[in-house]
Every structure is written in structure tokens, then in C-alpha cells.
């Protein structure tokens, strides 16, 4: 994901400078907006996956989970050894079985000893993804100022579903909702009673959740 941000020659500052004076054609703005939406979507998806991994391996009950997986590894190794013995008629002495399971246990103890370091490394990756997500979102907002927001205020009142169809489903519902939320927070748009907090959901689930309420989410301009 870091490479995605670095290879893109337009960061938030460059975008803002290029859009001053509305010198950039509207079609080009939407093209750039779609690119930033893809970056935001990918960063958000990776961020949620990392957060789920953090909760699974380093959450409140993570020690019990580690023990469970260690027991599972014992069973898997024992099953593999038994199958190999039957297929190739191999008979290992008892001390070799014991040595193998002792080695597994040592590896498990070493991993537990480095658990804090592994957790810190995962947290660092989460922080990086959060930065990438915020950078992509900020770039989307800058581009939307001279494109999408103008359309929304011109067509308001408009539902999230109508806006989604207006752009021929080129943008995700969750992306549109996230951008419009910034206008609502800034006091330039009003949203009716129907509000869906889909930003905490994984991207695909967020779109599914919004799809059921998009027609009821009406945005009204106060400009």
C-alpha cells in the first residue's frame, strides 16, 4: 500500500494547487477522484484485516487462542506422522517423537516471548494503513470540492441512491457516504433522520448495509 501512495504523482497538496481556479476539466477531476477512491478503498480494506488480526492474536483472550492453536499444531503433527508411518512403513523411536514435540513447544515459547514485539510490529502496520487511508480520503475531499460536492448541492435534495445512480455506480456507496458526511459535519448539507454508521464495517459489508437504506438517506443543501 505504501507503494501505491508513492507511485502516485499527485498528493493532497499538489491536487489542491492544480484545482485552484477550476482550471482542471471536470472529467479529469472525476477520473482522479475515482483513483483516490480506489486507494482509499484498498487502504480501508487492509486496515480492517489488520485490525481483525490484531483482535484475534493480541486481544483480551489472545493467550487462550495461542494455547488453542498450539494444541491444534500438536494434533496436526501427530496426524501427519501417523499417516507417514502407515504410507511408508516408517517406525520412529519414541525419543524422536518426544524431541519433535519438545521442539514445537520451544518454538511456541519463543513466539510467546516475542509476542509483545509482534504486537508492536502489527500496530505499526495498522498505523501506516490509517495514515494511507486518511491521506486518500483528504485527497478525495479536495477533488470533491470542485466536482462531486458541486453536483450534490446543485441537485439537492438528493438521496444517496440517486447520487450513486447519477454516477452510473462508478463510486461505492460507502465512499459517497463518507464524502457527504464531511459536508454534513461542515454544516453545508443536512441529512434526514435515516443515518447509517457504515464506516465501522468492512468495505463490502458497508456497501450492503447502505444499499438497504440508500433511498432513505436524503441530503439537503443549505448553501
Describe the overall structure.
Keywords: Membrane, Transmembrane, Transmembrane helix. This is DUF1003 domain-containing protein. The chain is 73% helix and 4% strand. Helix 2 runs parallel beside helix 6, helix 3 runs antiparallel to helix 6 and helix 4 runs antiparallel to helix 5. It folds into two domains: 115 residues, no CATH class; 77 residues, Arc Repressor Mutant, subunit A. The two termini are 37 Å apart.
Jot down its keywords.
223 residues, mainly alpha, Arc Repressor Mutant, subunit A, 2 domains, 10 helices, transmembrane helix, DUF1003 domain-containing protein, membrane
Write the layout of secondary structure elements.
Layout: H1 2-7, H2 12-19, H3 26-58, H4 62-88, H5 94-113, H6 115-145, H7 148-155, E1 158-159, H8 160-166, H9 173-185, E2 189-191, H10 203-211, E3 218-221
Antiparallel strand pairs: 1-3, 2-3
Helix pairs in contact: 2-6, 3-4, 3-6, 4-5
Apparent shape: elongated
Structural class: mainly alpha
Number of helices: 10
Q: Gap between N and C termini, in Å?
A: 37 Å
The radius of gyration computed from the alpha-carbon positions, rounded to a whole number of angstroms, is: 25 Å
Order of helices and strands: HHHHHHHEHHEHE
Query: What's the structural domain tally?
Result: 2
- Give the strand line-up of the largest sheet: 1-3-2
Number of strands: 3
Classify the helix fraction into a percent range: over 70%
Q: Which ranges are low-confidence, i.e. pLDDT below 50, for 5 or more consecutive residues?
A: 1-10, 15-22
Write down the overall mean pLDDT.
81
Strand count, sense and barrel status of the largest sheet are: 3 strands, antiparallel
Beta-sheet strand percentage?
under 5%
Amino acid at each position: 500500500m505504501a507503494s501505491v501512495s508513492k507511485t502516485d504523482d499527485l498528493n493532497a497538496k499538489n491536487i489542491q494547487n492544480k484545482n485552484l481556479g477550476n482550471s482542471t476539466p471536470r472529467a479529469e477531476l472525476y477520473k482522479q477522484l475515482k483513483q483516490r477512491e480506489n486507494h482509499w478503498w484498498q487502504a480501508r480494506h487492509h486496515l480492517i484485516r489488520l485490525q481483525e488480526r490484531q483482535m484475534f492474536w493480541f486481544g483480551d483472550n489472545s493467550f487462550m487462542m495461542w494455547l488453542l492453536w498450539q494444541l491444534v499444531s500438536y494434533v496436526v503433527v501427530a496426524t501427519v506422522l501417523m499417516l507417514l508411518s502407515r504410507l511408508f512403513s516408517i517406525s520412529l523411536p519414541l525419543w524422536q517423537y518426544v524431541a519433535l514435540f519438545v521442539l514445537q513447544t520451544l518454538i511456541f515459547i519463543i513466539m510467546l516471548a516475542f509476542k509483545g514485539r509482534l504486537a508492536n510490529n502489527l500496530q505499526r502496520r495498522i498505523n501506516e494503513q490509517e495514515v494511507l487511508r486518511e491521506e486518500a480520503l483528504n485527497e478525495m475531499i479536495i477533488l470533491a470540492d470542485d466536482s462531486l460536492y458541486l453536483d450534490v448541492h446543485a441537485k439537492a435534495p438528493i438521496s444517496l441512491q440517486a447520487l450513486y445512480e447519477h454516477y452510473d455506480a462508478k463510486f461505492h456507496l460507502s465512499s459517497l457516504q463518507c464524502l457527504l458526511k464531511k459536508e454534513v459535519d461542515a454544516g453545508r448539507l443536512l441529512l434526514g433522520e435515516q443515518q447509517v454508521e457504515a464506516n465501522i464495517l468492512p468495505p463490502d459489508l458497508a456497501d450492503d448495509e447502505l444499499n438497504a437504506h440508500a433511498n432513505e438517506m436524503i441530503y439537503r443543501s443549505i448553501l
